[in-house]
C-alpha cells in the first residue's frame, strides 16, 4: 500500500516518520522546504506538490493547521484521485469542516475519516498518540492499522465529525480545568497553604484531574510538568485557544450553553494576546497571580 502524507510540520513530520519505521511506503508533501528536508531524512519520499504526492496513493493522510487548509487541499487533490482511496484527516478542525471534507471525498467515491489526535509532539514522535476517529465503520477498519503505526490508542467515536467532536469536548474540559486548578493554587497561597499541601490533598481527593496531577501549573509538586521549565514545551497556549474557539463554534452552531467553555476561551484569548501563543497552556496561572510569575 502506498501512503501520501500532506503536512509534514511539528506533528505530521514525526507521524510520517513512524509510518516509514513501520515499513510503509510514504510520499510526503509540505510547502515548507525545511519540513520536506527533515522528512526525507526519515525515509519519506518527498514530492514537489500535493497532487504529485497523491499519484497512485491508496491512502491520503492530512495533518494541516486548520479546516480552511484541509478544505483547500481536498478541493485540489480529490479531483486528481481514482475512486477507492482512503482519506484520513488527522488535523484538528471544526466539526462542520470535517463534514465538508468527508463530503468532498465521498462525492468522488472515497472512504473518509476524521481522526484528530491527542498527545502532542512527544506522542507524535514516540508513536503513542491517541486517535479519535469519526466516519463509517468500513473506513475505520481500513484505517486502523495505519493509525496504530502512529499511536497507541485508536477510538472509533461514531460517524463523520465524531472524532473532531470528541477532541474539542475533551480539550474544553482541559482548558476549563486548567483555569480552575490555577485559581485554586492562587487562592490557596493567599489562604496560607503551600502548593505541596494543596497538591497532596487535591491530587488524592475530589479535585483530582489531569491538569493538576500531570500538568500541574505550579513548579514543584509534579517535577515533569512544564511549570518546572518556565512552561517550555508541552501543549502551546495558542493551540488550546484554537481548540476553545472550535468548541465555541460548535456550541453556537448547536445552540448549546457552554458558559465555562466560553469564559475559558475569553481568558485564553487575553492570555495569548499578552504572553504570546508559545508557552504551555498551564502558564495561564501567571495571569492570575497578580505579579506575572507562577
Ligand atoms: P504545523 O504548523 O507545525 O504543521 C502544519 C504543516 O502543514 C505546516 O508545515 C504547513 O506548511 C503544512 N501545510 C499547509 N498547507 C499544506 C498543504 N496544502 N499541503 C501540505 N502541507 C501543508 O502544525 P502542527 O503542530 O503539526 O499541527 C497540525 C495539526 O495538528 C493542527 O490542526 C493542530 O491543531 C493539531 N494538533 C497539534 C498538536 C501539537 O501539539 N502541535 C497536538 C494535537 C493536535
What does this structure look like?
This protein is α/β, with parallel strands linked by helices and 294 residues long. The chain folds into two domains: 2-159, Rossmann fold; 165-287, N-(1-d-carboxylethyl)-l-norvaline Dehydrogenase, domain 2, CATH 1.10.1040. Helix content is 49%, strand content 14%. The chain has helices spanning 12-21, 33-41, 50-53, 67-77, 95-107, 120-126, 137-150, 162-190, 195-202, 210-213, 237-254, 259-275, and strands spanning 2-6, 25-29, 45-46, 59-62, 86-89, 111-114, 117-118, 129-134, 151-158. The protein has a six-stranded parallel sheet, with helices on both faces. β5, α5 (95-107) and β6 form a beta-alpha-beta unit. α4 (67-77) runs parallel beside α5 (95-107), α8 packs across α11 (237-254) and α8 crosses α12 (259-275). The chain binds nicotinamide-adenine-dinucleotide. Nicotinamide-adenine-dinucleotide binds at residues 6-7, 9-12, 29-32, 35, 50, 63-65, 69, 73, 91-92, 117, 120-121, 235, 239, 242. Keywords: Branched-chain amino acid catabolism, NAD, Oxidoreductase.
Tags for this entry?
binds nicotinamide-adenine-dinucleotide, Rossmann fold, 294 residues, oxidoreductase, six-stranded parallel beta sheet, N-(1-d-carboxylethyl)-l-norvaline Dehydrogenase, domain 2, EC 1.1.1.31, 3-OH-isobutyrate_DH-rel_CS, alpha/beta, elongated, 9 strands, three-stranded mixed beta sheet
SSE diagram, text form:
Layout: E1 2-6, H1 12-21, E2 25-29, H2 33-41, E3 45-46, H3 50-53, E4 59-62, H4 67-77, E5 86-89, H5 95-107, E6 111-114, E7 117-118, H6 120-126, E8 129-134, H7 137-150, E9 151-158, H8 162-190, H9 195-202, H10 210-213, H11 237-254, H12 259-275
Parallel strand pairs: 1-2, 1-4, 2-3, 4-5, 5-6, 8-9
Antiparallel strand pairs: 7-8
Helix pairs in contact: 1-6, 4-5, 8-11, 8-12, 11-12
This protein binds nicotinamide-adenine-dinucleotide.
